[in-house]
User: What shape does this take?
Amino acid sequence: MSSVASVHSLWTAAAGAPGKIPGPHIEYAQLSPTLIVLGAAVLGIMIEAFVPRRSRYYSQLLLSLVALAAAFAAVIGLAAAGFGSSKAHVAAMGAVAVDGPALFLQGTILLVSLIAVFTFAERRLDPAAHGKHVDSFAAQPAAVPGGAAEQAAVKAGFTTTEVFPILLFAVGGMLIFPAANDLLTLFVALEVFSLPLYILCALARRQRLLSQESALKYFLLGAFSSAFLLFGVALLYGYAGTVTYAGIAEVVSDGAKQIDPALAGTMSNDALLLIGGALVLMGLLFKVGAVPFHMWTPDVYQGAPTPVTGFMAAATKVAAFGALLRVLYVVLPGMRWDWRPVMWGVAIITMLGGAIVAITQTDIKRLLAYSSIAHAGFILAGVIATSKDGVSSVLFYLGAYSFVTLGAFAVVTLVRDAGGEATQLSKWAGLGRRSPLVAAVFAVFLLAFAGIPLTSGFAGKFAVFKAAAQSGAGWLVVVGVISSAIAAFFYIRVIVLMFFNEPKAEGPTVAVPSPLTSTAIAIGVTATLVLGLAPQYFLDLAGHAGVFVR
Amino acid sequence: MENLIALLVAAPLVGAALLLCGGKRLDRTGHWIGTLFAAASFAVGVALFADMLGRSADHRALHQHLFSWIPVGGFRADVAFQLDQLSMTFVLLITGVGSLIHVYSIGYMEHDERRRRFFGYLNLFLAAMLLLVLADNYLLLYVGWEGVGLASYLLIGFWQHKPSAATAAKKAFLVNRVGDMGLSIAIMLMFTTFGTFAFGPVLASTGATSEGKLTAIGLMLLLAACGKSAQVPLQSWLGDAMEGPTPVSALIHAATMVTAGVYLITRSGAIFNAAPDAQTAVVAVGAVTLLFGAIVGCAKDDIKKALAGSTMSQIGYMILAAGLGPIGYAFAIMHLVTHGFFKAGLFLGAGSVMHGMNDEVDMRRYGGLRKYMPITFITFGLGYLAIIGFPGLSGFFSKDKIIEAAFAKGGTEGWILGGAALLGAAITAFYMTRVMLMTFFGEERWRNAPTPSPDRPSAEPAAGTGGEYTPPHPHESPKVMTLPMVVLAIGSVFAGGLFSLNEAFVKWLEPVTSFAHGHSPVSATTVTAATTVVLFLGVGVAWLMYGRRPVPSLAPRGSLLTRAARRDLLQDDFNHIVFVRGGGHLTTTLVQLDHTLVDGAVNGTAASMGGLSGLLRQLQSGFVRSYAVQMLGGAAVLVAATLLMRGV
Assistant: This one.
């Protein structure tokens, strides 16, 4: 009876003041980076619909570059206006945070995406089909692999220029993900960037079955993990009676001030909080590729078109770690004594697992996939620090790592034989003799992955380990250093393979790329060396951006 | 005036640089350039000496600070010189004898095509040795110490085409390294103890330091001295060092470098005075070595090796004296200077003999040479009389004082040391008379073809002689060689007497080394008488054995002691068994440990990681269903672990 009455009172309260529902107040200027990207994505779909086929490539390329550059400029503008520090606040009715970490990560994602667009647009590597330059993407993805329709599409010289708007949609989601300030926005953003990625994974021009298999695996497992995340969101709502980060944090630390009568039976039940929190974490750990939720990584990295792999490995990781940081630092700081030991365990098995399994890999893309798992473990060590240094070290590491990753995968697209990219490691033997420059560049990236001084990898690793050690996680750092030693083995093995082994007679050749890929690789190398030689400016930048708004 | 000090070192250094970098165009004039720079250094030394004499005893020390070498925080190493009476004595000895030997070498090395390089090395040696004695701190001294080691190595192995010379150079270098390690440890100890290694502060603050630390520093300094001065147990290199050209043996391995150990101990007197245990070790080393060297000298048939044994023995005297403390320092240095004269003279004489005998060194192949080389005979003879301590000559004054001081040590120790020193004097007289008799007297054994024997591979007839033995034509050496010998002979005769006039030398050194009169249980006259008696005893026995009886041109088998002495009292055998084989075993064991344990652990880790990797890889089956199950399991563990943490 009482519950009926309370429901009734809700109804009457809602109906009692018609016309008084306040219109949502949206700070468009502060959301402009996301809005520009998403708007450009919609525009890109329009181009697909209305612009003639031969002009689509250039219009899409131009639109994507302009949109990403404009969005980056907007991020810089917001940061310059003080939204990264003094004016940080929560915009869009509490849904999106505009603060230092958000702007830093959005800037990183936009730069990475800009470079990714270069690799997406590369059209010189694959031999021209019927006189037309083609890129890494299938002529007509909907056609059955090897079927007549596919052959016709190839013959007609079709290309999938839709990849650009799809990419922009993914970027839009990624921009919101680390800034999301309530669990529903978090979930929506997750789906907004995940779905385009599933599609992109399926679009490889060569080895299409492998590509489609990887997309399907990614989709199934992604959906599975989304379900966990959503379930976690529901449990947290059940616990706190709200989905906003600040609201949940308040309940966690102080207990609710006024318990909603309708939820009196469940609110402030610790089990809900713990299970819900664990499930939300699991959803995020899936995206960063932490053990034991990493199984998709090698398969998807291998099957996806290499430019997509590079983009995914760099940008997704940035976005997902950003969201993870915000959840742990804003929502759950009150229960850090509960989640820290668990995350310790996750970080340890992620570092060790990634490094150990990578030893026996024979495919360069799978090797890099396991390497990205190990790196996720290193970054987790910084996340666990729960200090301002921890946040800034993770921000720096993400920036440094994403450029190395993009560059490395861009180099992988260059090494080719008759079957397309030659990703078998054994084929890379003696590459340093044939193409010293390409091999040297790749060696720089590998050394950065391994964390050798004078590369950005060292500066980043040093920063996260320092933060972790200062927060009392000494043993975690020891495990991290051991894992780094194990990881150094397989990175350096590739260098040895390239420079100190005899080239094989039927070995792959190195394709001469257009200025697009060259630029991407050059930016990757430059960033790797600059962040390695003079990291202090960027460490300071990350340090200034290290405070979350609540 | 103090600005001239650096010039002492700079002159030979410039000479060395010129000669070693100048290339072939200096081949014709190189020996004159080298001699000129040595003589220039001597001239500067004499000028400084004259200046020093003009000042009162307490104001004679000069300092010159060139530059700060390594200023790091509280650590300060300077390149600075200190010229006091002790350094002055060495400067005059080194540059004086050094210049004479440069002159001698012009003749001796005349036919050597690498003469320019030889003079370059000699100049390098002079520079390093002067740096050693002029340094005002232990670190700079160490630089000179290593420098003379290098020069010694280069000159011993100067005839590197002979494997024996190359080996001897390496041996000298390695044995010296052991001593050098002692010096470097001593310097480190000084730094940790005193916070500096400049002579002034270190030697002034010994009173405030624990005796244990001073004993440690003293023992390390003694180790260094043993290496450089060929004292037991690091004596083994000196005999082999005679492979070098004879002027080198005279300058470096008799007169100057080998006395660096005596300098080091005398210079560090304040440390030893405060560490009686270290002093006891010093006198023990000195006493043992003076007998050891003398016994070895008795058995050698190679004239240079006999003289090398004698050098070892005489330095033993000096070390013994230096170990006696203030009653001995001045006499150690005095004997060092007189020894510099007569031993250099003896070596130059030996070189002159070899020069006239086709480089023959076996005294059993000499005999009756006094007729053929009269100047060599007379100068060598005067050196001989000086070394055995014939009354009135240099050696008599200096050695007699050491024996006296040894008795004055007091107690049983004094009797043992005095007895050893007296016994050494007798043996010295014996072996030096033996050398003299075998070389210049008796039958002319070199006229007959050598008897072939397994020990004498040189008995093979020289190539080109058609198998016929052509006896050498002994002749006197050119003036450029005899002149230095004459000058050194004059020094051998008069230096000791001059120094002892009115205790001039002791008073000269007293401000630096301090001096105390010992209280000998036996009177000075008794000691002098005893010394003279044992001297004639030694000469007499030698005359009975080698003067009255003909000397066999092939060495007899001899007693056990003789055979052992010929093998340098088995020092090399000992080193070989203990250090070479022991070291070999140690390294083999370590290598095996490295292979099995270290490599095993490393490779084992790598292999197990690889195995683990292969195992974990199997989890990656490629099936989405199994991935999903693993994710589910992972989620369950995550949730469970979180709940568990709450429970804890």
User: Anything to note?
Assistant: The beta strands of chain B are 62-72, 75-83. Residues 274 and 541 of chain B are 43 Å apart (CA to CA). The interface with chain A takes residues 606, 609-610, 612-614, 616-617, 619-620, 622, 624, 627-628, 630-631, 633-635, 637-639, 641-643, 645-646 of chain B (CB under 8 Å).
